[in-house]
Amino acid sequence: MSSIYFERPQGSRDYLLQEYEKRYHLEQTIHDVFSTWGYDWLATPLLEYEETIRQGLHKEEEESLYRMFDASGRTLVLRPEMTTPVARVATTSLGNVPLPLHLAYIDRTYRRVPARSNESGEVTQAGIELLGDSAPDADAEVLAVMASVLQSVRVGHFRLAVGHTGFVGALLQDLPESIQQALRQSLLRKDAVSYEQLLNQQKDRLSENEYQALLAIPGIRGGMEAIREARIHAIHPMAQKACDDLEALMEALDAHGLAEVVRFDLGLYLEHDYYTGILFEGYVPSLGLPVCFGGRYDRLLERFGRPLPATGGVLHLERLLTVIEEREAQNGRYLLFTGKKDRQLTYSFAQYLRQNGLAVRVVRKEDGQNDAPTTAWISEKSLHSSNEALQTFFQAFIAMREGE
Amino acid sequence: MLTIAMAKGRVMKAVVALTAQAGYLPPENLEKTRKLILSDEKNHIRYLLAKPVDVPTYVERGAADLGIVGKDVLLESSVDVHELLDLGVGRCQLSIAGPPDRELDQVRRVGTKYPNYTRDYFLKRNQQVETIYLNGSVELAPLIGLADCIVDLVETGRTLEENGLVTWLSLEDISTRLIANRGSYQLRAEEIDRFTKRMRAVL
After folding, report:
1. DSSP B48-78
2. Partner residue facing B182 (CB), from A116, A196, A283
């Protein structure tokens, strides 16, 4: 016996049988939600030139790319996310389509994951991008679409945490670049302790107001009252502008009927440095990682030569799969037994059943004797089965044949 | 009800003193009980008593909303959780220690309870070392030629001293931290913020 165990590459998994069905159904549900919101679909290649992907890449992500070469030696990468490829399309092939663009996709992305991590390196991103609209209403729409999906797939209770890069950015801007980086890293790692320690080391560089404002950031959360608290600390015009954006967003979300599921979290910070405004993460019970995230990225498309305001959001399909309920079993599958003798009639009846939406497998067997209610066999032009539905179908089938 | 995973061990007494001060008095003596789950009906809190290394896992996976555990354990496990508060108890250093006559640059083998952290630390120094995982009496390793140095917690330095070892370098300030599951942090924001605020007030 062989002792080799053929394992999957690290960070990947198989979707088998019912799991596949569940996954397919989830994709369909998301597809329907995006479509009913009036989004147009696109698919882009799994491989992109590295220069393209680099436009939306964070320094820290360099190591997580899968790289390979094309015949002429140019570096190709497996796309690590979808927003950058969509930006490439929006500035090239879709360059002349009237704005705003409402684009949707469901596609796989790849990242190398650390050996110790349980995270999936193969991630299906189901997302939308709304290009050419700078109003907070556009951001609200993205959040509303995300909420629509979460409602449609019945995850139960969920919450969307909303922050703004401009608020943090404004308060950090007077500190040296390296300190800013370190503080951003702490926020990204959700480490309020190291954030506070770093800040205390910088106390001499900061006025009391600045220090108090920075100190307050990770703790400012909640509904509209959080914005009132943020305003107290918004000592730069850019920070006030961020508060204006968040207020306008909340008003729009209120109009969508979503005020209840949205909570501000001014300490929220996301990995990509292309975000320029509102950003969000969505959480559901019993999962310690966000099922969706996104935000405004007004500076990404100009890197491709077409300055356009943009906002978007993606759902992490594999994470979502772990929290949605098992699908109810599909209508059963029928087995038709047949030997050589009645093969033609059996095949023909099977095809008739399939055209009526039933799942039918034909099983080769000389003696069709089987009493299970989902089975049948034909002999002497009659159907042997205890299944009434199949009997009814058979009578209709015979009537149809005789009528022809 | 909030579920809090508490690390059993040397710092527990100080932690319980703090939570009690903040108004969260556990229903039983947490240090003495043999129960693994305790409910405080009055404050709507459920305590899980766990081995320290398991606390980050419970919190990351959502079995507990909050966790109270040492920073050393967090550094080794590298879980994706919120770190909310430094409780200021269980203070010590995570240090590199070894015989006084050797140097850090010559190190090839390191004995430690923290192999992941140690490997990462030396990689960042461009130094590839062999980590030897040990679960206790790590100080023994350099004495019997198992390792050139150790990466371990140093509180007073007395154990090192009595075994002829010295601290070469302090790497991290360690203390007990309050951590939160990322989902719970958003979905149960109000309860968690209230708990954190009350704990912060007694530090």
Report:
1. EEE-GGGHHHHHHTTS-SEEEEEHHHHHHH-
2. A283
> Of A112-121, A229-238, B76-85, B98-107, which gets the smallest average pLDDT?
A112-121
Beta-sheet strands, E only, within A153-230? 159-164, 221-222
Chain B: closest CA distance from residue A117 (Å): 9
In chain A, domain spans: 3-326, 333-403
pTM assigned to the model: 0.89
pLDDT per position as a tens digit, A32-84: 999 999 999 999 999 999 999 999 887 778 889 999 999 999 999 999 999 99
Q: Give the confidence band of A8 by pLDDT, cuts at 50, 70, 90.
A: confident
Q: B187, A283: Cβ pair inside 8 Å? A: yes
Do B84 and A284 make contact, defined as CB atoms within 8 angstroms?
Answer: no
Q: For A353-395, write each residue's pLDDT tens digit.
A: 999 999 999 998 866 566 778 888 888 888 888 889 999 999 9
Residue B203 in contact with partner chain A when CB distance is under 8 A: no
Measured between alpha carbons, how far is A197 from A187 in angstroms, rounded to an integer? 12
DSSP-assigned beta bridge partners for residue B50: B7
| A288:B187 CB<8 A | no
CATH homologous superfamily for the domain A3-326: Bira Bifunctional Protein; Domain 2 (3.30.930.10)
In angstroms, how far is the first alpha carbon of chain B from the final one? 24
Span A123-133, mean pLDDT?
97
List CB contacts (< 8 A) between B117 and chain A: none
